[in-house]
Design a protein that fits this description.
By secondary structure, the protein is mostly helical.
């Protein structure tokens, strides 16, 4: 059962069919998609951090979490930078994530400033 869960985690992280096609298109989700921590052993055993980052962005994730090792953060960042430079990840794909993230920040700010703080 543990092996199946790990496989499902890998598929969710890097699957365009799940993140973009099902979640965003079929379910109509317009919010921010944040990955689980890429430092989890199940994922790191199958992909490099650069590959995980690139595949996850291509799949439709907006924010990537690499929470434990600075070297892993650097590898994810370097993988993304390489993918942008060689055209593997398009400017339009990055713009879509930035717009989603900014919309979330504006909405959060509006909600937080609209709350009656005198309670």
């Amino acid at each position: 059962m543990r092996c199946i869960r790990k496989s499902i985690q890998i598929i969710r992280l890097v699957s365009k069919k799940i993140i973009t096609d099902w979640l965003r298109k079929d379910m109509g989700y317009k919010g921010v998609v944040v990955t689980d921590d890429m430092d989890m052993g199940a994922l790191a055993k199958h992909y490099t951090f650069g590959d995980m980052a690139v595949q996850s962005i291509q799949a439709g994730s907006d924010i990537l979490l690499v929470c434990h090792e600075y070297e892993h953060m650097q590898a994810a960042y370097n993988g993304l930078m390489k993918a942008v430079k060689d055209g593997t990840i398009s400017k339009e794909r990055l713009d879509a994530s930035v717009k989603t993230d900014i919309a979330y920040e504006i909405e959060s700010w509006y909600i937080n400033t609209s709350v009656n703080h005198s309670i």
